[in-house]
Amino acid sequence: MENKPLLQIDRAKIRKHWGKTDSEVEECISNLKKWIKTQDFPEMPTDHMIEVFLTNCKYKMDQTKINIQCFYSIRQTIPEVYDDSNPKLPEMKEAWKMGGYLPLPKLTPDLYRICMLRINSETKGFNATRYFANAMNIYEVKVCEDLVLGEICIMDYSELQWSHLLYFSPFLLRKMIFIMENVAKSRVKQIHVIRTPSYVNILINIAKKFMKKKMADRIQIHKSIEELYKYVPQELMPADYGGKQPSINEMIGNLIDLFFNTK
Asked: Residue limits of the CRAL-TRIO domain (predicted)?
């Protein structure tokens, strides 16, 4: 039995947004596959994956080639994030206890994906590199399944402990922002930080130093969930945030099933 997709997409509307017909998209994909065959990549990406790279790069072919190259070369460029990060490893299953990066199932009306980032309160055994590696595993699920115009990121760091900050070195934050801007190229529209203790500002201010100004200026800090709903439709949020979608734990369970119960 084929697994039910985790993420809702609307391919026709995405293509219409970029002014592309089905035949034009197929031609772009075909041309890129010919180019990929001349490269030393470990696989031939699926047509869907190639379309994700195309939309990431607004259908600019040269930029799309660079995006694909980065996607496959980053494992050698930043090996500490990707080495021993196979999602089927027991230690990566344990990584979910640290928190994680979670794309929500339904698209916004303007075809953006809401993605949540959380850190759980437990600091014993916390490993920032593995936390980020888990996020990149989820990003690879998105490359295989998702198709959007961009992302709206919601960071819930209400459980962040002061001691967590010791694990987030500027060196590691810089590498993760590099991945976000050059590999994920997720065209982040908004970044919302909710329910955060005051010392989270330290982490945010360090991260901003490595971000492009355009990205840093999109960060908004909210004192309440109600403030967030001025920007994000409440019904698209998880049930434990007052929305109508499955709970965070249920969605995480679906991802763990995907990684551990499929061949």
From this structure: 89-246
For the beta carbon of residue 131, count every other beta carbon within 10 angstroms.
23
Higher pLDDT, 212 or 41: 41
| Domains assigned to the chain | 1-263 (3.40.525.10)
| Residues pairing with 156 in the sheet | 118, 194
CA distances from 113 to 106, 107, 125, 181 (A): 7, 5, 31, 17
Nearest to 111 by CA among 201, 224, 16, 217: 16
pLDDT bin (cut points 50, 70, 90) of residue 257 is confident
- Distances 144 to 89, 166, 230, 241, 254 between C-alpha atoms, Å: 20, 34, 31, 27, 16
The reported pLDDT for the residue numbered 1 is 34
Mean pLDDT of 66-95: 86
> Integer distance in angstroms from the first to the last C-alpha of the chain?
12
pLDDT band at 172 (very low <50, low <70, confident <90, very high): confident
The answer for residues whose C-beta is within 8 angstroms of residue 136's C-beta and 6 or more apart is 81, 82, 85, 179
Of 153, 222, 154, give the one whose Cα is nearest residue 188: 153
What are the tokens at 250? 């249920």
Q: Residue 18: which residues within 8 A CB-CB, separation 6 or more?
A: 55, 58, 59
pTM for the model stands at 0.88
CB 115 within 8 A of CB 212: no
